[in-house]
Every structure is written in structure tokens, then in C-alpha cells.
UniProtKB/TrEMBL annotation:
Domain of life, per lineage: Bacteria
Name of the protein this chain belongs to: Aspartate aminotransferase family protein
GO molecular function: transaminase activity
Alphabetic keyword roster: Aminotransferase, Transferase
């Protein structure tokens, strides 16, 4: 929906502007989505969990 698309864009923008994370925003099959590109070979599952929690917290703050 348009609401989810806008929220995803705002989450990506907020995280980038805060300097806390760079979560990409892309369109897939007509839906605006968040994406992670993992370039660091030492990233751990715990790192990803922390990032997902940050995305969730940011979303809750924006709604």
C-alpha cells in the first residue's frame, strides 16, 4: 500500500540521516521495500538482529 511504501522510505531516510545505519530502499514487484546489503565479511547474526531491532524501533517512532 502507499502507506507502507511511505513508511519504508521514511525508515530508510531516518536511519541514514541519524548515521545509525544505511538501509536501502528499493522497489520489488511494485512494492517499496527495505533492503540490507552486507559487505562486511565479519558481520554476525547478532549484528543483523540488532539492525532489525533498530528498523523496528524506528518504524514504531514514525507511526
Amino acid at each position: 500500500s502507499a502507506d507502507i511504501a511511505l513508511l519504508n522510505q521514511r525508515i530508510g531516510d531516518a536511519l541514514l540521516e541519524s548515521g545509525r545505519a544505511n538501509v536501502g530502499v528499493t522497489e520489488f514487484d511494485g512494492v517499496t521495500c527495505l533492503k540490507m546489503t552486507l559487505l562486511n565479511p565479519t558481520v554476525t547474526l547478532e549484528d543483523i538482529k540488532v539492525l532489525l531491532t533498530l528498523v523496528e524501533t524506528t518504524a514504531q517512532q514514525l507511526v
